[in-house]
Amino acid sequence: MSRLISWAVRAAWSWARRKADIKRGSHAAARFAAYGEGTSIAFPPATVFGEPWIRLGAHTLLGGDITLTAGFVPGLDLGPVPLVTIGDGCTIGRGSHVVAHRSIVIEDNVFTGPYVYITDQNHVYADTETPVGHQWPAESPVRIGAGTWIGANAVILPGVHLGRNCVVAAGSVVRPGDYPDHSVIAGVPGRVVRRYDAQDGWSPPLRENAAPPAD
């Protein structure tokens, strides 16, 4: 009997993984401010709320176990403007978090690895006598330019403005600031380690045909 139950549970879970994605035209998709053609959120999501303030473009895929939220808790009136906008042709990796309280804009064709954290709000430590969790957090809009790639486990902090076609290395923590188009950002804290200019090319130059390491 236990084997039969175990098989039934696995079969049901496998079916749900294939069939229970949130797709355009479903009741779940209708709760969003916009839900583009060909877009889906994989099953199972971790936490999704504030859908009326979340706008998803067309042909965008969000991986399973994702956290996608607008506001502190469900049921709030967050005003007339969406807090999260994810453009067309994006892929947000499994287990990632997009947590908005003010404004997060992810432009078209942005790809992320798994477990990326993107937020426009952070805790503060202005009063050293009050627990950090009891202090009112600070907020600053986030924008991620079109064509950008963000590696696994990267963190995008409030106030980050990434240009077009940037690369964020896996595990990086990107601090507030403006990062030009075609920047490669790496490290903790993240910094620009390489840039591309239409006239001068890559700076520093890419290593081409590098010799293999000596034995």
TrEMBL record:
InterPro entries: Hexapep (IPR001451), Hexapeptide_acetyltransf (IPR051159), Trimer_LpxA-like_sf (IPR011004). GO terms for molecular function: O-acyltransferase activity. The keyword Cell cycle does not apply. GO terms for cellular component: cytosol. Keywords: Transferase. Gene3D superfamilies: Hexapeptide repeat proteins. PANTHER family: ACETYLTRANSFERASE C18B11.09C-RELATED, SIALIC ACID SYNTHASE-RELATED. Belongs to the transferase hexapeptide repeat family. This is Sugar acetyltransferase. It comes from Nocardiopsis ansamitocini.
